[in-house]
Write a structure and sequence with these properties.
Elements (H helix, E strand, L loop, with lengths): L1 E3 L7 E6 L4 E8 L1 E11 L5 H5 L7 E5 L3 E2 L18 E3 L2 E2 L12 H7 L3 E4 L3 H11 L2 E7 L6 H9 L10 H4 L5 E3 L7 E6 L6 H7 L3 E6 L5 H6 L4 E4 L10 H12 L4 E4 L1 H9 L3 E18 L5 E13 L6 E3 L2 E9 L5 E6 L4 E4 L14 H18 L1
Parallel strand pairs: 4-5, 5-7, 6-8, 7-9, 12-13, 12-14, 14-15, 15-21
Antiparallel strand pairs: 1-4, 2-3, 2-10, 3-9, 4-10, 11-13, 16-17, 16-19, 18-19, 19-20, 20-21
Helix pairs in contact: 8-9
């Protein structure tokens, strides 16, 4: 990525997709060039949490909501220490942010962090194109990076694909840290950071859990050195087929029958550990309005998603795995994609979405309670 910051709002810009389609608009944020996988997010709010979600590493995010930026940017809602998206595409940027918590505009924050974006394009047409053709490589170019379309297309087509990309180590913490329990400490959890969002350990801390956040390269020895009551595997970017290290670690946790909870990338890791395959979705699920059914209760939840890959597991039967029986616990009501897995013979489950609700609805907050109950049941069983 190359960037500058002068005169962005007046600078012409172009978005070039790998199939040759182009969209022309104005620079938004930093001026320069950037590359990534073009994907769309359907959330009408929560852009700050979206932009700082490490799962969006190397992706150019298209906002389907027509106006973006009207609440500005604050110092409280970041989900990590930086913006992770490669680029940002909006139709109508707010001219003046208006919110009592706002400290600066979204445009200013994109510029300060060197994130190249584009505004003033038909994002509805772009979203329809990505739905029909699938997520694809793209580039945003403005200022001195502009060149003839044929040259820009060649630069886009020279970029790596998301399929086969190993990205989780890029975004994970390099050093372990602890999020203390709020109030009385009830449990200790080792959380494997594959791209964790800041609100996730906070949601566990609110339930009396002391969370030890460990790097993606953590070993089983590292995990059990903190004497965990449970192990958590986070969300993260890239192709789960490349995550052999986390799969091996989860296998070790399953072998010890430690209570286990995974979300998003962690769901895909559990799928692989159980012997299921994973595959790339045509355009993925991204946004805070995805309907999912919890098959264990029949309840329908509106949930927050950010994933381009999914687990290939049978929806209509219980599967036999080396860790006992497993079943699909949650399913997307839009397209029947696997949204959760659970083992029936030991304490392990996962979901493909984001129960921390940052941003998003709180329908899935019960999953943290389910994890807490699982740890409590195992602890009581050990005492008996």
């Amino acid at each position: 990525m190359t960037t500058s910051t002068r005169g962005a709002a007046r600078t012409p810009a172009v978005l070039v997709l790998e199939d040759g389609r182009t969209f022309r608009g104005r620079a938004y944020g930093a001026v320069g060039e950037t590359f990534g996988e073009a994907v769309f997010s359907t959330g009408m709010t929560g852009y700050q949490e979206t932009l700082t979600d490490p799962s969006y590493d190397r992706q150019i995010v298209v906002a389907t909501a027509p106006q973006i930026g009207n609440t500005g940017w604050n110092d409280e809602d970041d989900e990590s220490g930086r913006i992770w998206v490669s680029g940002y595409v909006v139709r109508d940027p707010a001219r003046v942010p208006s919110n009592w918590r706002s400290r600066r505009s979204l445009d200013d924050e994109l510029t300060a962090q060197g994130v190249v974006g584009i505004s003033g394009i038909d994002t509805r047409a772009l979203t329809r194109h990505l739905r029909e053709r699938g997520s694809m490589r793209a580039g945003i170019f403005s200022g001195e990076a502009l060149a003839p379309d044929a040259e820009l297309l060649q630069r886009v087509q020279a970029q790596p694909h998301m399929k086969g990309a190993s990205l989780y180590e890029e975004v994970a913490t390099k050093e372990a840290y602890v999020v203390p329990a709020v109030g009385e400490k009830k449990f200790t959890v080792a959380a494997i950071d594959l791209g964790i969002k800041g609100m996730t350990p906070q949601r566990m801390a609110e339930r009396g859990i002391e969370v030890h956040v460990l790097p993606a390269t953590a070993t089983a020895e590292d995990v059990y050195a903190v004497e965990p009551d449970g192990v958590f595997f986070s969300n993260g970017p890239g192709d789960p087929a490349t995550a052999d290290g986390p799969v091996a670690l989860m296998t070790a946790v399953l072998e010890r029958k430690t209570p286990l909870f995974g979300i998003c990338f962690g769901n895909q890791i559990l799928g692989r550990a159980l012997g299921f395959g994973t595959y790339k979705l045509k355009y993925g699920h991204r946004g805070i309005n995805q309907p999912v059914q919890d098959r264990t209760t029949g309840k329908v939840e509106v949930t927050a998603h950010n994933h381009g890959f999914a687990v290939d597991a049978p929806l209509d039967k219980v599967s036999e795995t080396k860790f006992g029986r497993a079943e699909v616990s949650h399913v997307c009501l839009n397209d029947d994609v696997v949204e959760g897995l659970q083992l029936l013979d030991q304490p392990a489950f996962s979901v493909q979405y984001h129960p921390e609700a940052a941003a998003g609805p709180h329908d899935a907050a019960y999953l943290f309670d389910r994890f807490t109950s699982l740890m409590s049941t195992v602890r009581e069983g050990q005492r008996a």
